[in-house]
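dumping this here before i forget
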Amino acid sequence: MKDLEYVKSRIPHRSPFLLVDGVITEEEDSIIAFRDILPDDPVFKGHFPEYPVYPGVLIIEGLAQTAGILLLGQTTAVPLFLGIDKVRFRAEVKPGDRLAYHVKVKSRRMKVVTVDATARVDEKAVATSSLLLGMKI
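structure:
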C-alpha cells in the first residue's frame, strides 16, 4: 500500500481537491486507490447537512485522479480529463465509507487513453463509468 505522500508525488492536486488518500495496488494497466469519506469533510456542510451523501461528481473526479496516478507513472505528460461515458450511480456513499477506486486501461490511441472505472464500497459498485484522458506533453 502507498500513502498520501505517494499520491501527492504523482498528481498535482492538493487539498481541498485532492480526492485520493492512497494506493492499494498498481500494475502496468490497472490501479486500485482509495478515499476515506470522513464525517467532517466540508462537502457535507452543503450536500446535505441533514442527509449527508458524497456527491457523484466527486466520485468521478476521484476515479479520474486515480487514472492520473496510473498514467503519470508511465510518462512525464500531464493527463487531462477529456470525457465521461456510461456513468451510472448505483448506491449512496455516506460518511464513514471507504471508496475503492478501480481503474483499468481499456485502450490507448496516440495521446488519448480510455479507462474503465468503478468506485466500490465494501466490494459493492457505487459508480461505474468509462473515462477519456488526454496526454499533454
